[in-house]
Structure prediction request, 624 residues.
Amino acid sequence: MTAELVRGQNHPLSRIRLTIRISAGVPVLAGATLGDENGRVHGPQWVAHPGAPAVPGVEVPREAAAEHRLAVDLGALPEAVHRVAVFLALPTGSADLLRFGAVAAPHTAVDGPDGTELVSYTLTGLDTETAVVALELYRRQGAWKVRAMGQGYAAGLPALLADQGLPEAADLATAIQHTAAPTATPARGMTVPAPSYAARNPYDTQAPGTAPRDLGTPVDYTHPRRSHGTPPTPPTPPTPPAPPAADDRPAQPVAGDAVGWSMEERLYNQVWGMFEDLARSTAAYRSAVEFADSRLEKELDQALADPRGRLGAAGDTAREAAHTRRTQLVDQARSALDRDLAQLAAESDVVEPALPPAYARWDNPVWHAYRVPAEPPLALRLGDLHLPESVPLRVPMLVRLPLERGLWLDSGPVAAADGFPDSAELRHLAMEAAVALAARLLAVHPPGDFAVQVIDPAGAGAAALGVLTRTGALAAPPAAGAAGVAEVLERLTRRVDLVQMALRGGTPESLPADVDTARQLLIVSDFPHGFDDRAVTRLRYLADEGPAVGVHLLLVADREDAAAYGPLLDPLWRSLMRLTPVPDDHLADPWVGHAWTYEPALVPAGSQIVEQVLTEVARARTKH
Prediction:
């Protein structure tokens, strides 16, 4: 599976022969520099460019183009080479292409020898830069990795090459540009500010032998799908002590600032865009901390390698300097993350009040103006998500409707449940979370389109189910005892079978009159109490076949209670989405590898909003 990297993130390379594909949308120059273990390029012979397209282990294109393929053989690189930096530059002869911020974001991909895409990276967030280091292949402890760099230079190719230690950087950059475009002339009106991002690490404030970086422009981790229209004008860093002008301040967030045909769809896309931005920003921070730790370890090893410097003041000074540099890097990374979190928090403050009922928390004022909808929603809020670095920022967890999987509210002990040692309290909280989800599903569907049925064999969930029974929101009273369990499961199994046959036969209108065509949610309390082997088999069948024909399962259970069934129930647990009644970091993110903490969307203590909403739902269903 392709790994989609974010700026600063690295990924191991399992192949030696690689093809690097570049798609820029406009003609660009592509090249590569070979660096030693410190990233220093020893001379022009270590630079592959259109005028000298082949160096040991690397071959690059001979001219500027919108699409490029670079061939890399890591096994053929000189032994002294530890880093390969792939760079892009805009031709200086194109007067209408003065910066990367005015063109489409370049996309890079690393392929194996069989054409399999291993890694991809889109260079977002570029603005005034005219040259950029896109990727870096580097060797550490005998293994090769690739890092997404996105390190841009407003001063262009001369600054990029000089940053890598080339004393003849300006002459070589001129030769490269003239090789690709012999008639090119220097672009007019270009200033020469410092590079936009730090050398070899996006959070490093200064590389050895270079001037301090300009950190005035914030890093933009926005996903390409959230880009709209032309890039905004870059803000001008304020000159102390004068405050920034109003036009220089970041644009205020707006609810619905995403693509979509309706406001509901735009808000859905905006919420998931916030999720992606938070994931990318956190990944960049964690990668920067990893870089700082690895550099600290390397510098300490170098300090200890010389016997003369291990002891005494010189050794202490070297170790203290290494720790200081590590602290500076981590602080810089945290500052960038805090800036991104502040932007996301400001966006969340605007988006949350604008959410429709299906996406809103129960304390949102939108519920006090609730009206039964005429159409089902696009998605549903199951709870909130956050990361350890992002507290107190929460992102709504939205899932598309209709539900493709059943839900399992785990009433067993979880790591985050230290404040709830009583298993009975956890079971009650799980039932309350299940009822809140059921109430939300009933409220966001038109009258007659959705129904809730309950199996509560021993009546353990009666207290939490009270709001559903009092308001008449249930299709039938909760089923109790083994007989009640069997009757409900048999009726829903028959419905699944009949609907499947009708759909396969192309005659969905031929269903018997006693078959309820509304979507069904089955809440099962205190599983597996009251279930025999036949009932368990039917429940597994509903979990597998039900969602496709409108029967959805909401299981409230502690897996340990069903341990007697052994591996028989393993497919059931795997088929359900596990949720918890208390915060727990069990939701894995295959995109960038984060473990997200899930918090259920519970009703505020003492609130009567659910009862008011369900009363309105029952009234509308009676009229229908």
In short: The CA atoms of residues 98 and 189 lie 10 Å apart. Residues 182-248 have pLDDT under 50 and may be disordered.
